[in-house]
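hey all, quick one before standup. I had two proteins in the batch that finished overnight and I want to keep them in one place so we stop losing track of which output belongs to which input. First protein below, input sequence then structure tokens straight from the run.
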Amino acid sequence: MSSPTFDVHEELASAPLSGFHLRLALLLAALIVFDGYDTVNPSYAVHYLIPAWKLSPSQGGLLVSSGLFGFLFGAAGHGILADRYGRRRVLLYALCLAAIATVLTPVIGVSLVTFCSIRFITGIGLGVLMPLATTYINEFAPRRFANLMPVWGVALGWAFGATLASIAGIYLTPHFGWQFLYFLGALAFPLLAITYTSLPESIRYLALQQRTTEVRALLSKLHPGRGAHYQSSEMRVFSARAAKGSYAALLSPLYRRTSITIWIASSLSLFGVYALTGWIPSVMIQRGENFATGFSFGAIMQIASFLGALLGAYLIDRMGAAKQWMACLWFCGAVSMALLAAFNQHIFNLIAVGLAGFGIPGAQFLLNNFTARSYETSIRASGVGAELATGRLGAILGPYIAGLLQQRYHSSRAMFVAVAGTSLLASIAVLTLRTQAHGITPSDPNLLPTTLLDRIDETA
């Protein structure tokens, strides 16, 4: 007679939403608050640094983009490390690096070269936080909340952090200088201590590593009534079809089309996200808004991005059709940008910028989550990292090209047209993805009932 077994993937997918999930989402959201705050604050520092250092608009764009170069390396490199050595350890090291570099920014960054250098180092750490938090929360999220839980844990955190940067930029920098934006980054150190003591390792990662005792302990927190069953049963997991942390696997026949399409869509989308994030406050002031109102446009865009992601996640969880909803959001952003290029009136500007945030970064959050669900556990962190790393190419070019367009045409209209075009192309690209019901790609074994999939027994 065979001994009883429990299936790790099905136990996670069928778990009821519990206090454990909420605490995990809250902790990851706090990490992403720091990410969102630190990513956006150069948009407010550049308003002071361009005249102080006598920079051209294109140099101002480079100042905003400098951290994104680090993001590219952090996002690209973390996946292999996280898939091989664990999510928790890599995340803690990245948070520590980003916190130290942030506090050192106003000390070291006293010229364009030194500022960009320290922001590059900061970006390496920050580039790990978003993709790894996305990976984390997807590996714990129950099937019924596969999109909503990541939005609350990642999109809300990023939008809140970016909004805090806007508030600090509006109300604190006029009194304390741009340097104060970065000294506030010291708040990341208590967060680092809390993360060290509270963040568990991913159960899916632990299962692949056959760390059975830890898997049973964590599952008992998700299903308190099944603790005795876990202790007396053998552990069953899916076999890994790809080598751990293998970027080559992302381009294997099983994943190639999905990977390339996601990379193209991410690059186009993040071009628009960071062009707007980097320039909206300054551009709105140039269009006739006062200082406080101009800077508030950044906050409006970030709040709207969370609302767009929240609505999209709800619709995908209830109705499926993930690629169609993402395409709709990007199309909404493209239309709002085209209208913003054609008209300049206060109320219209507010509505158009809000719709742009609702559509473009809102869809990007959904794409991040979609990516995490498109790869099996052994290469999931690599998959999300590759998506955000290739996307950073667009993110780097966004603020820089936006600055060049303003410099060339002496107007913001060309920038808005460019963002409208990239958003429309992202919408078209994502529609070419092949998906099954509810927006799950054929390569995703973790959100479907286990009876539908081939599996092997792993004796623990």
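OK second protein, same deal, sequence then tokens:
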Amino acid sequence: MRLAVAIASATLLAGLLPGAPGAAAAAEAGEAGTNTAVRAGMVAAPGVGRPGAGDAYFPGHGNGGYDVRHYQVTAAYQPAEKRLVGRTRLRAVASQRLRRFNLDLVLAASSVRVGGRPARFSQRGRELVVTPRRAIRKGDRFVVSVAYAGRPASISHRGARPFVTTRAGAIVVGQPEAAPWWFASNDHPSDKATYDIRLRVPRGREAISVGRLAGRKRVGDLVQWRWVMRRPMATYLAFAAWGDFRVVRGRAGGVRYLYAYDRALSAGVRRRAVRSLRRTPEVTRFLARHLGPYPYGDHGGVVTKADLGFALETQTRPVYDAAFFRRGAGLQPGQNTSVVAHEVAHQWFGDSVSLRRWRDIWLNEGLATYLEWMWDESQGLGSVRSEFDYWYDHGGRAFWRLPVGNPGRDRMFDNRVYVRGAMTIHALRREIGDAAFFALLRRWVGERRDGHGTTTQFERLAEDVSGRQLDGFFDAWLFRRSRPLL
């Protein structure tokens, strides 16, 4: 994720000033041990799935007791009424005996079925508590179907409002949470699944999401756009946009692309957005030379007039606030490919290899920011070394005070997580050398494709690849509150 408005001093827009990297937005963190889970009330009685995934930063996000394998989401949005009507059908496997379990949903559910049979349910906050007629045995596969409706733009949960209305429709996108505003889910990146998304919108409008556009058809007075994601995906990396878009489709380098531009964009912003996004295949090829094959069969992007304040690495098709393409918002005249490089880098780091706990967000954002620096260097927009040296020399005491390896929930969006994360990656490259460094990146994304990774696992792989003991290095760069020595 990248914030449109920078947090760092001396930067007004992400990527605005040469010599200072653009600010990026963050996610969550936190490794919840047994004692933390007990204190947070996340330990459930026998036969009851936990009402949280065990993440110390967000104890109520996600759920325990099962693993979702596939979502089928149908969501119809009527702009005139600002009302969404949806149904989620999910397939899951029980990791324990379940006589009761939770899903995450803020819209009002009208019915829940488990294994085709009606189930009892209740709701409070973002928790949908489901009691099936018969307990589900450990290891059993089961299907849950939830029907729901409401006006999601009017719903706030602890300050989060990821559903934003627009002149012609709406968009729901956000990090760390957005899914509960449009589908019932196990809303934590530790539980990834495949998706079949069916968005319905009035005729004459478009409905955009992630993955491959598998078809369009009339359903009553609406048109259904079907999107298929066959690679595992975290819930926050799914998005839905209903509205008036100009859609551009094609193929480049064996990968399908689809771009969608809000027709409400001004002519100048649209022109700069098109110039930037159409270089996505070029950016992808550049990154693939260093990281290995692009993880997906689709890419592209969506540029929205909605006032999001960020760009987000939604899987295969990042979403960009139009602010990134206003005049002066990029290092290059007439375009901003720096933000494109950041979000495309996330397709490897964050999307294909996801976090188990939000405390490790520096891995996502530090690597994406560093690869953004590398792309800028390839375009003659400064050098990686100059970025590193600038912040090392001018960061100031407060810059080094945050332990970016565990920044805390309230600091996940702090620019230091991004910049210092990227500096850690560059310092590691200096420490182990280019050959070992790029071998490390390739092995990380290759061996963990469609899975997860932690800071500890990244450190161990770095030691294995380099043959060096790196405990002190990572401690100095990620967890101490002072500037490391070079």
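Flagging for whoever picks this up: The radius of gyration is 22 Å. Confidence is low (pLDDT under 50) at residues 5-41.
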